[in-house]
Design brief:
35% of the residues lie in helices and 26% in strands.
């Protein structure tokens, strides 16, 4: 798997094309999602309890979750595959650090991070390609580092593709995604399932993990 893998190129180009609209739609979305804020708050509290080292939001888009993490007292920065998304994030939050990059090949040292948030950023990865991402997360997290995943849950079905508005995405059984993380040496700390709200099609899943 390389930076030029077709699905990576397609994902970056698709998000470049809708970046401005996406940023407008989602910039304030956490304001109406108390359970999502609770999951992010639990992650932040866990990181702070262990010394509050640097945290990366991988697949940060226009940066609103990264900014929320900074507001929770974390030394947070964002990385995204889409250059246009990174440009918008830098404009909206000039005091934060944002970089272009891919989650499967991070320009970070081994054990550099205390935490990773992947908030709906693994959803476009074909299932067979996902294990190397967890291996990379493990590499850049310090021992005991924290990982928070946000994703679409499959509601009893097997992992399946669906017609995401930007580009093809996948819904995961929460147990299967947790097992992939366990195979990469992560321990589950907690999980949450949130039923779809008005305007949402699918159940939402959150997994809070810790590097063994």
């Amino acid at each position: 798997m390389t930076e030029s893998a077709p699905y990576l190129t397609a994902t970056a180009e698709a998000y470049d094309a809708v970046a401005v609209l996406y940023a407008e739609l989602f910039r304030d979305s956490l304001d109406r999602l108390p359970l999502d804020r609770a999951a992010l708050a639990a992650f932040a509290e866990s990181v702070r309890a262990d010394g509050a080292g640097p945290v990366a939001e991988l697949g940060c888009g226009p940066g609103y979750v990264t900014a929320h993490l900074r507001g929770l007292g974390l030394d947070a920065f964002g990385i995204d595959l889409s250059p246009t998304m990174i440009e918008l994030a830098r404009e909206a939050y000039p005091d934060l650090r944002f970089e272009i990059g891919s989650m499967h090949a991070l320009d970070l040292a081994d054990g550099e991070l205390s935490g990773i948030v992947s908030w709906y950023s693994l959803i476009h990865t074909p299932p067979a390609e996902l294990p190397p991402y967890f291996a990379e997360f493990r590499r850049v997290l310090a021992p005991g580092g924290h990982l928070l995943l946000g994703f679409y849950e499959s509601e009893g079905d097997a992992v399946s593709a669906f017609d995401h508005k930007v580009t093809t995405a996948y819904r995961w059984p929460i147990d299967d995604l947790a097992e992939l993380a366990r195979e990469a040496d992560f321990v589950e700390v907690g999980r949450m399932l949130r039923e779809p709200l008005e305007g949402e099609r699918f159940r939402q899943g959150r997994l809070l993990m810790r590097r063994r």
